[in-house]
Every structure is written in C-alpha cells, then in structure tokens.
Amino acid sequence: MNKVFLIAVLGTFLYAGKILLPESTVAVVNGTAISVDERDKEVGKLLPKAYFHSSVNAEKLKDLQEKALETLIEKTLLYTYAVSKNIKTSESEVDEVMTNLAATYGSKEKLEEAVKQLGFTKETFREVVKKDETLKKLYKKEIKSDISDRALRDYYEKNSYKFKEPEKIRVRLIHIRNNPEDPEGKSKAKKRVDDAMAEIKKGTPFADVAAKYSTAMSRIKGGDMGFLHRGRLEVAVEDAAFSMEIGQTSEIIEQDIGFFIVKVEDKALSNQLSFEEVKDGLKKDLKTKEEDEKKAKLLERLMLNSVIVKQ
After folding, report:
1. Which own/partner contact pairs does 239-248 have at CB distance under 8 Å and 24+ positions apart?
2. What's the pLDDT tens digit per position in 246-257?
3. Which of 59, 87, 165, 189 is geometrically suited to a Cys-Cys bond with 82, CB 3.0 to 4.6 A?
4. What is the pLDDT of residues 5-61, one digit of tens each?
5. Assigned domain for 28 exists
6. d(CA 283, CA 7)
7. What is the Cα–Cα distance from 240 to 263, expressed in whole angstroms?
8. What is the CATH number of the domain that holds 211?
9. Strand 168-177 with 258-268, pairing
10. What is the pTM of this model?
11. What is the DSSP letter of 48?
C-alpha cells in the first residue's frame, strides 16, 4: 500500500514533516490501527498485580508503554501474515475457547464479569481470543521447534564444560557496615566487630553472634548465606573463605564497606553434571533459543515490507 494513500485512509496528516495520528491511535501497521486502549491493556500485562499506573513514575510508565507498543506491533505483523497464509480461527473455535474459559472461571456470568473488569466488551474480547488462537496456530506451523534427544546429546558432548558445577562453599557471614556519612562510622564498626569476635572466641555459637552483631540481612538466618560459588562475595572475603577448612572461622577482614567475619560450614567440590541431569533444562533452553531466532527472522522479513507509523 502506498504510504500517502495509507495516511489518507487513516485520516492522518503531515505537519512540519511529521505524521500525526488521531489522539486515540498510537501506531498504524499496514493500515491496521493500534489504539491507546489496546496499548494500555498491554501495559497492564507488564505491571505486577500490586501496581497501579498511579504508583509508577512517568519514566517507568513510558518505558512500559514503549515495550507494550512493540509487542502489539509484532503481534499485528504476525497476525496479518498468518491470515495471508490462510491460517485462521473460526467462530466455532472461539466459542470452544470461551466455553473452556467459562468453566475455568466457574460460570459464563463470572467470565463476563472478569472480561468487563479488564475493560473489554464481549465482542472485543472475542476478537482478542481469535487473534491469540491464530497466533498459536502460526507458532505451531512456522516457529515451534522440536529438538531430538540425539541433538541434545550431541550439544551436551560438544559443550560439556558448560555443565560443570564450580566448587562451592556454605558460609555464615558477619558483615558490619561502615557508615561513611558518620565521621565516627569506621571506629564504631570496628568496635562492634571486635565485640563480635570476642563473643566467638568465648565460644558463643557463630549463628547467635551473627544474629546479634551483623548488619546484613543474613543476620535473620544466623548469617547463613547457603552454598556460594566464587563471584558472590567481596574478593578478600571470598579468598579467605575458599582457603579455609570446614568449621574454620576467619580473622576480622577489613574492607572499604565495613568489616567481615566468615565461617565455612561445608564444601562441595566441582562436579560434572550428567546428561540426564541437564537434559530437560537444556531442551527448554535450546528450544527457546531456536524459536526466538525463527521469530526474529520472520519479523525482520515482515518489517522490511511493512509501513509502520508510530505516534
């Protein structure tokens, strides 16, 4: 479709070199308008349920709106492509989905109430269902990937180093932060860590000392940090911990952010995970990667032959 003709059809016009869309429209994809209402409903999907628009700052909301619009543009491109390939969803198929949804909600009336609360009419919701079902069919036909066990095993054998768990240690930690805004912050932190170490040397259980003196959140669990591999602690603390034996407690370790005392509770040596241990997760990861690549290539091709106008 010629861009000038497209603009005329949509009732848009040019002003100072810009294409202006109606206030209710945020984008047009090959003649199909995407409304503000559609975008805002998509934003709702991106927001945690505990959030409302009023509690999201303007910058965050703008970012969500842009992500929502990109999602809607992609869906519009894929839906139009699906229809052009004669991939469609009949009204009877939509009826079946609606029946299943009603059963999930408990009754037809409860479903209708939920649809209303989401801001849809019966007709607009049916249209959403129809498009979603059509996109599912497109996914199955052109995007879905099936990865054989043989392919998985080949990948595992060629990349076995990726499935090797590093050495891990389980530690308890006392971290006493130095308050840089307090002129006496360092001396106060030093006294507190000295008191903590004195308690440990008297025989007080490390967990009790951590609960009393540590300023880190781990204090609520007696300083228990669980199993950690390298890269999770301050370098000096980590080096000390990995060089220690099980049951050993470090001396006081001073860092710019405060003072540390660490105790090693347990160790787990580096371990090569078997194919069976990683098979399910690997299949999911490779499947997702391959499908994302297929989808990206399809969208890239569709965009090259599309006219997309955004507000």
Report:
1. 241/169, 241/171, 242/167, 242/169
2. 999 999 999 989
3. 87
4. 343 333 444 444 455 566 789 899 998 999 998 998 888 887 764 455 456 788 888
5. no
6. 46
7. 10
8. 3.10.50.40
9. antiparallel
10. 0.66
11. -
Instruction: Give the total number of structural domains in the chain.
Output: 1
Distance between CA 78 and CA 84 in Å, rounded? 10
Radius of gyration of the chain, Cα coordinates, nearest whole angstrom? 29
Best CA proximity match to 35, nearest among 45, 43, 25 = 25
Whether the CB-CB separation of 306 and 6 falls below 8 Å is answered with no
Do strands 258-268 and 271-272 pair parallel, antiparallel, or not at all (unpaired)?
unpaired
Q: Do 195 and 202 form a contact (C-beta atoms < 8 A)?
A: no
d(CA 210, CA 223): 5
> Could you tell me the two tokens for 304?
């090259």
Which structural domain, as residue segments, surrounds residue 186?
167-269
d(CA 44, CA 52): 8
Distance CA 202, CA 173 (A): 18
Tokens linked to 121: 């009419």
